[in-house]
Known about the structure:
By secondary structure, the chain is mostly helical. The chain has helices at residues 12-19, 35-45, 50-71, 74-83, 89-99, 108-115, 119-132, 153-174, 179-207, and strands at 135-139, 147-151.
Amino acid sequence: MKAGHRYFQPPRNLVCSAMSKETTDDAANTTVPGIAELYRAELHASGLSNRAADAAIEIEEGMAQLRRSMGRREVARLAIDKMELNLDPAHVDIMHILAAADGSEVTVGTVAARLDVDPSRASRLVGDMVDLGSLRRVASQRDSRRICLELTDVGRAQANKVRLFKWKMFADVFIGWDEDDLVDFARLFNLYLDQITELKLSLADQTTPPPAE
C-alpha cells in the first residue's frame, strides 16, 4: 500500500445515526437512505474520484451480498439438495476442515475453533457425522489418550461430490468470460484480499495496548 494513505473510516456518529433510521425486521438487508452519499463523500475526501468512489461502493455492496450468501451457506445447501446428501451445511464445513488438514490431527476442539462454535455444539455435529458414517474417531498417533477425527470412505465421497458441484458452479459462471478479464479479475481480487488483510493487521496493531513497563 502507498505510504501515508488515509484508510476509509466513515464517521462513527454519522453511521450510527443513519443506521438508527432502519425500521424493518431485516435491517442487514436494508439500504439506509443517505448512507451511500455519506460513504461517497468520505471516499472522495480520501482522494478517490467520484467515479472511483462509486465503483468502491458497488464492490462493497457486492461483498455484503456475498457475505450474506456465505453466512446462509447457500451453496452448500444447494449442493446437498442437488446431490441428495443426508447432510447439514455444518457437516460440509467439517468435511472441508478435515480435507484441508493435510496430515494435521483434527479434534473436536479443532472443529469448534474453526467453526467458531462451543465445544458441545461441535461434539454434537461430530457425533451426527459418525452416526451417518461420514466420520470416525481414531486415537492420536502422538498421544493415544487423545481422540482425533478422520473422514471415512463415505465422507470422502460426499466431500468430493460437494467440491465438484461448487467447481461446476464456478465453471458455469466463468465460461462466458473473456480470458484476459478472468485473469485480471483473479489478480485484482487477490490484491484486494491482501490489502484488506494488511489493513486489518494495521488497525489491530493500532488498538493493541502498549506493554506494561
